[in-house]
Design goal:
It is built from 13 helices and two strands. The protein is an all-alpha fold. It has two domains: about 35 residues, no CATH class; about 220 residues, MetI-like fold (Orthogonal Bundle), CATH 1.10.3720. A hairpin with a 5-residue loop joins strand 1 and strand 2. The radius of gyration is 25 Å and the shape is globular. The model has no long low-confidence stretch (mean pLDDT about 85).
């Protein structure tokens, strides 16, 4: 009997070891999502008393302004992810395949700025781009401009800072995948008569496509819901999904409408991420 108990206990050890992670996921992922969904169908009085369920929160969202906000966030997220991919892939390829002696030092230089707090990075960029900031001061002293440029509170500032903040999320998966490619495969391609470009197109890129998909989604998803960067560097000119949700939750105190918009924008994000995933999984016909 004791042997059967020990055998059963040994078989169930992996379950008990994973139980804390399972409970953590339910408490801090599924439970908040369930609460947001319930709130999105709830109706509250002026005194914040629950009055029942309603579809009015979702009917209120069928306005052009909400769809423009979601489309703007999708376009910005896709643009930032694409820019990160186009810049990060050559950098990752150079570090993984070309650099040998100074590889760790160069990676250290690339990643050390991102050890700083996220908010500090954003405000540092704000002080660089503001009207009396460092960049305008340098341009004025060099005589390039005669009056300060309006760099902050613009869409360009939002895109640049989002690219800067999310660049490592694209770089690290690409660097890891390219570094793990067996060099003998590349040598075999060269031995069969392929040049560097054809080897990259037929061998390196297909073998790193999984990292491309993962890195793209790692940038696309948080960039869609970003609200700190647009709030600080975009000012009140541009409304994104994250800023609109925070507006309803913190300023207007309309939790029900904010929850409904969160659910609706979450569905839009899932559709966008699914489309990106399917497009990047297509078996392209290589030239």
């Amino acid at each position: 009997m004791m042997q059967i108990f020990k055998k059963t206990l040994n078989q169930e050890v992996p379950f008990f070891m994973s139980l804390p992670a399972f409970l953590w996921q339910w408490l801090f992922f599924f439970a908040p999502i369930a609460i947001i969904v319930v709130f999105s169908f709830s109706q509250f009085s002026i005194a914040d008393r629950w009055q029942g369920f309603t579809l009015g929160n979702y009917r209120a969202l069928f306005a052009a302004v909400f769809f423009r906000t979601m489309c703007r966030s999708l376009v910005v997220a896709f643009g930032v992810a694409t820019a990160c991919l186009l810049v990060a892939y050559p950098v990752a390829y150079f570090l993984a395949r070309k650099v040998t002696r100074w590889k760790n030092f160069l990676m250290y230089l690339l990643l050390i700025p991102f050890w700083t707090n996220f908010l500090i990075q954003i405000y540092a960029w704000f002080f660089l781009l503001e009207r009396n900031g460092f960049i305008n001061m340098i341009l004025l002293k060099m005589g390039v401009v005669t009056e300060p440029l309006h760099l902050a509170h613009s869409m360009g500032a939002v895109l640049v800072v989002m690219f800067y903040c999310y660049f490592p999320f694209m770089l690290m998966p690409l660097y890891t995948a390219i570094e793990k490619i067996d060099g003998r495969i590349l040598e075999a391609s060269f031995d069969l008569g392929a040049n560097h470009w054809r080897t990259f197109w037929y061998v390196t890129l297909p073998l790193s496509m999984r990292a491309v998909r993962n890195g793209f989604l790692l940038v696309f998803v948080p960039a869609f819901g970003e609200f700190v960067i647009p709030a600080v560097l975009g000012g009140a000119k541009y409304m994104f999904v994250g800023t609109l949700i925070s507006h309803y939750a913190l300023n207007v105190r309309n939790i029900a409408l904010g929850a409904a918009f969160t659910c609706l924008s979450g569905c839009a994000l899932l559709v966008g991420a699914l489309v990106v995933w399917l497009v990047l999984r297509i078996k392209h016909v290589w030239p």
